[in-house]
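Database export, one record per block. Field names are fixed; values are copied verbatim from the stored entry.
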Amino acid sequence: MTNDVPPTLANIPRPVPSMATEDNTQIAKSIPHSVPRIPENVASYIKNLRAMTKEELIKHHLNYMGQNGQFKIASKEKHRRGVEAKKQKDPKQLAKSKVRKIWESWNAGEQTFASDAAFSRAMNQKYSILEDLQNIARWSRAWRKEAKQRRG
């Protein structure tokens, strides 16, 4: 038994460098059945990580890992799917997307409204589920600000 290996892992043979470059099945065969095997996709991920330079590893960590070690991509994807599901089910969100399209046509000059207040009143009458005029006016201001930022 070597000094650098814990006694519980002493009986597991260490792979030699030539085995690491070959197929992972050789390594998997050398591990006793009591040790769980690494799935193939995880093994290839680890192999890719080992091939990275120190700078690439740091960049990889900062891009994909959060402060607490959780994957940021997974949480962003989960959030995006939740938002999409809400938009498809919630009638207010559907009405908001329709109001946005009308606002874009008004902004492009295809439709005319005297002011933001007139636009809000018209949308409130058209989509009665949108109860608050202030929300429609707030959306209009936010969309205008967003369009202004896109134009530069």
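Remark 1: Residues 90-151 form one domain.
Remark 2: The longest helix spans residues 133-151.
End of record.
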